[in-house]
Amino acid sequence: MSEQQFLWAILAMAGVMMLFRIVPLLFCKKKIKNQFIQSFLAYVPCAVLTSMLVPEAFNSTANFWSAIGGVIVAAVLAYFERSLIEVAISSAVAVFIIEKIMNMVNFI
Amino acid sequence: MENTAKLANQSGFMKGLKDGLPIGLGYFPIALACGIMAAKVGIPFKFAELLSLLIYSGSGQVAAQNLYAGMESSILMYALTIFVMNCRYILFSVSIAQKFDKSMGVLQRIIFGFFNTDEIYVVAMKQQGELGAPYLFGIAVCPYLGFLIGNTAGVIFTNFLPKSIISALGIMIYAMFIALIIPPAKHSKPVAIVTLIALCMSFLMECIPAIKSNLGPGITIIICAVVTATIGAIVFPVKQEADVDEGGTVNE
Questions:
Q1: ipTM for the whole complex
Q2: SS3 category, B151
């Protein structure tokens, strides 16, 4: 792909993104009264986040086991309602430690 | 009167800035990983920067970089991939627009639309009452900066970071998702059940090879989210939005 073509590809992607992110905001000015739609929209955030979490989270690190460890640490801290950044950093530290330990075990 | 309005605007902006800070810090390592990938697949620096400026989405950027690495030459294919990955923003936009107050005019909506992300959406939806432009602009600042700086740092420092650090950074965005999902589920049984259904369904779709190979990850996310939210709306209709939103102490 030439530089020129890739530039057009980037612009096309940006255009599509804005279409999806901006246009619905402009055309949705009335409050929705319908109970079904209201309920549906209330459940969208947890449904979308959960769908994005599984299975990608388990492929996000160098190996499956460190990812499992990271997810467990995150889940426990999240259950006790720690802040976003605390959960994220603890989880990354857990992954780092698990991988270090696994490397050491492999050496022995 | 003017002074109190100005004060309210300032405090709204500051509150947004504060709520956006952890998101921005969370984006930094993810963007770092994106930048590292861009350098690895051989995207020239100026295009890597343009990508991170315009394609404000970690997953979108990774998808674009994968296409580039696979020598994809059809511009339509790039556009289609982003199309599928961004469908969920129709749902986000419709639901968040319900909470906008009068300060959200056309220009404000356009600006916020560009800077909106999954995490900003979730955190903003947790706020009590209506959302104004000062708060929404405030919350958008740190995430965008974190994304941009992380990306640039990734492209520049690719060769200096050890593999073990890069691997550990990979989990952070998902840890953040978990921190957003679990507390509301803990406080509301319907939310917990809907979350569980989404979890099982997403897992099943990954396990069925026919689905996995024929549909991209963007489409499976949409199907899974729409089906589970529909089940939730049918089985546990919400009287008022507050029923589901309460109990969010995610961002303190």
A1: 0.83
A2: helix
Partner residues linked to B131 by β-bridges = B100
- CB–CB of A66/B170 below 8 Å? no
Q: Evaluate whether residue A15 is within a structural domain.
A: no
* Mean pLDDT score across all residues of chain A: 87
Residue from the list A43, A67, A90 with its beta carbon closest to the beta carbon of B194:
A43
Q: How many domains does chain A have?
A: 1
A100 lies in which domain range?
52-107
Best CA proximity match to A71, nearest among B167, B175, B29, B203: B175
Asked if residue B1 has pLDDT above 60, the reply is no
* DSSP-assigned letter for residue B131: B
Tokens standing for residue A84:
């976003």
The answer on pLDDT for B249 being more than 80 is no
Tokens encoding B203? 């897992």
C-beta of residue B121 within 8 angstroms of C-beta of residue A20: no
Report field, pTM of the whole predicted structure over 0.80: no
Any chain A CB within 8 A of the CB of B241? yes
- pLDDT, one tens digit per residue, over B94-125 is 888 888 988 899 999 999 999 998 889 988 98
For residue B60 the two structure tokens come to 């979108």
For residue A41, the tally of other CB atoms under 10 A from its CB is 24
Chain B residues touching residue A23 (CB < 8 angstroms):
113
Query: Shortest CA distance to B59 belongs to which of A39, A64, A53?
Result: A53
- Rg of chain B taking only CA atoms, in angstroms: 19
- Is the residue at A35 inside a domain? no
pLDDT band for position B252 (cuts 50, 70, 90): very low
Distance separating alpha carbons of residues B250 and A84, to the nearest angstrom? 7
- Provide mean pLDDT across the span B188-204: 94
Q: Compare all CA atoms of chain B with the CA of A58 and give the residue at the minimum distance.
A: B171
Contact B169, B29 (CB under 8 A): yes
Whether residue B244 has pLDDT greater than 50: no
Quick one: angle between helices B58-69 and B75-86, nearest 10?
150
